[in-house]
Amino acid sequence: MAQAAPPAARQPVASVVVPVYNKEAFLAECLACLETQTLAKDDFEAILVDDGSTDGSLAKCEELAASRPWVRVLSQPNGGVCEARNAGIRAARGRFIFFLDPDDTVSPETLANASAFFETCPDEVDMVTYPIVSIRDGKRQRLHCRYAVLDETGVYDLNDPACAIVAQTTMNVAVRNRFGNNVLFDWRPEAGAVIHEDEKYCTDVLQRTMKLGFCAEAEYRWMRHDEGVTTSSAQPERLYDNNLALYEELFGRYEDEVPPYVQGLLVNDIAWKMNARIALPTHVEGAAYDEALARMGRLLDRVDDRIIMTHPTLKRDYRLFVLGLKKAVPLVWHAAPSALAVTRGDELVFAAGEADAVLRRIVVRDGQLFVEGRVESPFFAGWEGGVELFLCRRFRRCDRAVREDGLELTESAAGFYDDAVKINDFYDFSFACELMENEDVWLDLRIGGNSIPLRWSLKELVRPTFLLRNTMIAGMWCVCVSLERSKLIVGRLTDMAREAVSRLLGARTSR
Questions:
Q1: Do 100 and 17 contact (CB within 8 A), yes or no?
Q2: What pLDDT score was predicted for residue 511?
Q3: The model's pTM
Q4: Which of 104, 308, 314, 361 could form a disulfide with 271 if both were Cys (CB 3.0 to 4.6 A apart)?
C-alpha cells in the first residue's frame, strides 16, 4: 500500500475517510466541500483511499493532494468499498473518523459541529450521526422518517421504542477513533450482492452503549447519481438468503428481548424491499418458498407487533401481511357493524371503522351511468369470511325506498405483490345503471354480513377535461361525486341550468 504524504505530527481532531473507485469526475467537488470546512485545516485530515481504480482516479487524488498538506492518498488493489474504508480507518489519526463517498458532499460546518458535539459526551456515545439529504437532479428529496425522532441535537437511547424507526443504515456518521480497537467493516455474505455493510458496521459500533448522538447542525449531501446496487444484483435470488443471514446474526446476539432499534432495522429493510418488489423469496416455489418465508417469520416472531403496525415506511396495505408471517401466536379477524378488528391473544393489533372504495372510472353515456372501481382494506389480508357489495339507489322523492342490487366482485391485481404472490384480497367491481330521475347512488359493503362504511377515493380516477370539483355534465345529466358522503348525486338539468353550469365548468377548465 503506497502513501503519498506523511501525516502531520500534531493529532488532528477529525479524519475523513474517502473510498475511491473510478470516481475521477467527482473528486474535485468532493475535495472542494472539505476545503470550505469551518474546522481549521490543521485540525483535520482527508484520507483518499484509491481501491484499484481503472480510470484516472489515483492520479487525480495525487494531483489534489499535492497542494493540500491535509490530504493523504493511499492506494491498494481492488478489494471493494469495505476494504477501502478499513484501510482509511487503520490509517486515521484524528480523534473522530468521518466517512464521505467521493461523489457526495457535506455542509461547511459538518466537521466542526459534529466533532464539538462528540466532545460533550466523551463516554456516552461511540457514534454521532447528522442529517442526510438525498439530492436528485439538483432537488432535495424528503427526509427519512428517522428525523421525526432525531429532531434536535442530543443523545438518543436506542432501547427506547420510539427509536425503532431510526435505522442508521447510511454513512452520515462520525465514530470515536479507538485506533487498534476500532470496529471494521466485516460483512462477508456467502453469495450474492454485498449490501447492508454500512448497516452492520453502524450496528456493531452502536452495540456497546446502544446510544446514538445526533448533531442537527451538520449535513451529509447524498448526490443520487446512481442507486448503488445494480438492478441485476438487486434481485431476491441475490439478496434474500444473505439479508436474512445478517438479521439472524444481529438478532442472535440477544438471548431475550431484541432491542427496539434492532427490531426496527428488520422492519425498515422489509419495508423498502416490499416497495421495490425484492423482499419476498419469489426466486423459489412450493415448499422451498414456504420454508424461505417461514425463515423471515421466525425473525419477525421476535419483533413487537406495534413496530410493524406503526412503522412509517411500511405501507398500510402491507402491514397485516407482514404481521401474519409471525406464527408464534396466530392472528384472529373480527367483523361487526361499522367495525373491523384483528387481535393476537388479548392484544388488539388492528382496528378500523371503514374500508376504501377507489373509483377508477365514471362515465355517463346515452343516459347510462358506468362506474368501475376497487374495494380494499388491510383487513382483507387474512379475512376468510364473506365479502359482498351492493349498489344502492334512492330517487330523491320522499316516497321512494332504497333499491339494492348485488354486484359481482372479482379478484383485483392490486392485491398481488407480483404475478405469483398475493398479499391481500382486494376486489374489483363495476356497474351500469340507467339514469331516470334525480337520485343518490352509493355502495354498501358487507363483511361477514356486517355493513361496513366505505371511504371513497378518486386517486386513480381517469378525469375527463370537463370534470371540476368532482362534477361532470353529460347531456342533460349532472353527476357529482360527494367524497364527504361517499355517494354519487345525480341530477337532471333543465336547458337553462345546463347552459349555466356548462359555462361555469368550461370557464374553469378551458386550459
A1: yes
A2: 33
A3: 0.89
A4: 314
